[in-house]
């Protein structure tokens, strides 16, 4: 499910997790927690935080969409990615552009979902033809 985030990122992107990152002020903080190295002393806490934050954010965004069907921030693909795939994609997405890492964490998750799982554009209606 898209809302459950788990950590699977390449070892080269992993750095020691700091306790300050658990405040999750930014998408970069969240990405650091989501990509914690299994040997990190805070690994278990980081993974659990990543799961909870991701699932909670996804749940709130889904409820916003359910409350107002005209608001479609993202669309879950028919073949849903695994949570490992979603987390790895979030971490990569965050690291791809420095501006993403400084976004507020919730905004970063929302922007990631919108960028990665966009909704199809509604087909335009054909122009009406007038008969003279």
Q: Report the radius of gyration as a whole number of Å.
A: 18 Å
The fraction of residues in strands falls at: under 5%
Tell me the series of helices and strands, N- to C-terminal.
Answer: HHHHH
Number of strands: 0
Structural class: mainly alpha
How many strands, what sense, and barrel or not for the largest sheet?
A: none
Short description:
The chain contains 5 helices and no strands.
What does it look like?
The N and C termini lie far apart (55 Å). The chain is mainly α. The protein has helices spanning 27-34, 43-67, 83-96, 98-101, 105-116.
Main attributes?
132 residues, mainly alpha, disordered N terminus
Ordered list of secondary-structure elements with their pairings:
Blueprint: H1 27-34, H2 43-67, H3 83-96, H4 98-101, H5 105-116
Helix pairs in contact: 1-2, 1-3, 1-5, 3-5
């Amino acid at each position: 499910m898209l809302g459950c985030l788990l950590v699977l990122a390449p070892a080269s992107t992993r750095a020691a997790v700091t306790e300050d990152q658990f405040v999750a002020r930014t998408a970069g903080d969240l990405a650091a927690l989501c990509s914690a190295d299994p040997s990190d002393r805070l690994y278990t806490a980081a993974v659990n935080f990543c799961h909870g934050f991701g699932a909670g954010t996804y749940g709130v965004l889904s409820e916003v969409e359910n409350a107002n069907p005209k608001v479609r921030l993202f669309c879950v693909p028919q073949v849903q990615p695994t949570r490992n795939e979603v987390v790895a994609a979030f971490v990569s997405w965050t690291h791809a552009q420095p501006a993403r890492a400084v976004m507020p964490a919730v905004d970063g998750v929302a922007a990631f979902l919108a960028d990665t799982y966009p909704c199809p554009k509604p087909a335009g209606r054909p122009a009406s033809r007038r008969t003279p």
